[in-house]
Amino acid sequence: MKIVVKLMALAAVVALAACEHTAPAQQPPEAVDPQPPSAQNQNQAAQSQGANQQQTVITLHLAQEQEEEELVAVDAGGESPLYALPQPVIIQSDMNRVTPVRQEGEASYLLIEMNEQGIPKLHTITEQARGHYLLLSVQGQLVSVAQITEPIKDGRLLVGTEGPEHTQAILQLMQGRGAAN
């Protein structure tokens, strides 16, 4: 299935991104060390980032399978690279809360809930970029890849992880206490 959408045009129209209820893609080899999370600290950090983007810890980049001049090649652990916008489309100041979610069995996720400014961004990008990908990065480290399957209207983005330990490691990295090499 070949979907050709100019990602730069999407980014110019609206700086946003997302995906919902997707299975985790193959993860990059650089997993982080698991540590217990502190949801209160990460929520406070997410809310205090609006004025100072240099301290942004969590970002979402929009990516596609087709190479284009403006895009950056990213090894996302699959057979071929993905090609991403160099600038994030959703940043930490667009987010309200990040919560670990676990289903029966092995499935583990992060639920990223957007704030008032992030909800319309997430909706627009997921509506316009179906079939493309969101790359979740924490402190510049790619931690999860998810494909956009449907528009998200409620501002709740569910991203798959490799398992509960990986989820906890990502949360720890968000707090600046994990390995961020």
Explained architecture:
There is one protein chain. The chain is of the alpha+beta class. It has a single domain, classed as Gyrase A, domain 2 (2-Layer Sandwich). 21% of the residues lie in helices and 27% in strands. It contains 4 helices and 9 strands; from the N terminus they run H-H-E-E-E-E-E-E-H-E-E-E-H. The chain has helices spanning 7-13, 39-47, 118-128, 164-174, and strands spanning 58-64, 72-74, 82-84, 90-91, 95-102, 108-114, 133-138, 141-147, 156-160. Strands 1, 2, 3, 4, 7 and 8 form a 6-stranded antiparallel sheet that branches. It is globular. The N and C termini lie far apart (35 Å). The model is unreliable at 1-54 (pLDDT under 50).
List the keywords:
181 residues, alpha+beta, Gyrase A, domain 2, 9 strands, globular, disordered N terminus
Produce a short descriptive summary.
By secondary structure, the protein is an alpha+beta fold. Helix content is 21%, strand content 27%. The chain contains 4 helices and 9 strands; from the N terminus they run ααββββββαβββα.
Rounded to the nearest angstrom, the distance between the terminal CA atoms is: 35 Å
Low-confidence region ranges: 1-54
What value does the Rg take, in angstroms?
Answer: 15 Å
The SS-based structural class is: alpha+beta
Number of distinct beta strands: 9
Summarize the helix and strand pattern as letters: HHEEEEEEHEEEH
Provide the number of structural domains.
Answer: 1
Helix content: 10-25%
Number of DSSP helices? 4
Shape descriptor? globular
Write the CATH architecture name: 2-Layer Sandwich
Mean pLDDT: 73
User: β content, as a range?
Assistant: 25-35%
Largest beta sheet, briefly? 6 strands, antiparallel
CATH fold topology: Gyrase A, domain 2
Name the CATH class: Alpha Beta
